[in-house]
Amino acid sequence: MKTLKVLSALLCYPQAEIQAALGEMADVLDRERLLPEREHQALLALMRQMAQTDLMELQERYIRLFDRGRALSLHLFEHVHGESRDRGQAMVDLLAVYHQHGFELNARELPDYIPLFLEYLAQRPDGEALDMLADALHVIALLGARLAERGSDYHVVFEALSALVGEPADIADIRRQVANEGPDQTVVNMDKIWEEEAVTFLANQEGCGMHRPMTGSTQPVQWVPRSSPSQPPAYSR
Question: Which of 27, 68, 151, 190 has its CA 20 to 30 A from that of 82?
């Protein structure tokens, strides 16, 4: 399901390679046609906007959204378990799923990072991928609602993910909750939090990559020119 690879790439830290591949990514969406028309067109509009925006501005916008505070963290279990010990076990369990199917992570990435999770799902059978995506739907819907409330174009990526499996039954409650949320306290109290916690920034150091062992070594998957219409590009940082 290459559409999931496209959505994964759109949620990665913007890089020149991603910006250069936006046309091919749009081709993948057009070819697979898995999304309803509204979400499909919204993603194409986002890609056009990203293609026309200076890369540094895209990077600054991304950091302001996703790397400052926890309300928009791109780590799934941040929104489920917070900093509890349950989060660690959940990550161990998810990592075991990856390993079971022959995938290895970059040493600097966490297994619950959403772009990486989507990249993994893109390489699994469709039914399995959609079942696992549905398990994460509440977090996906929450992030989409928060991004929409902030006026960020990134909300269309999460709405596209929701469209693949159907919105959660309590989506109206989620949107009401988000509308009544105050400022992200992890941003308001950032200096205090930094004093109290050992913070390691992992998300963008080595990219959102998942590696599959090949001939005894790990080879990154990359967006590459299509050799035929039936061979869409694949992306991993």
Answer: 151
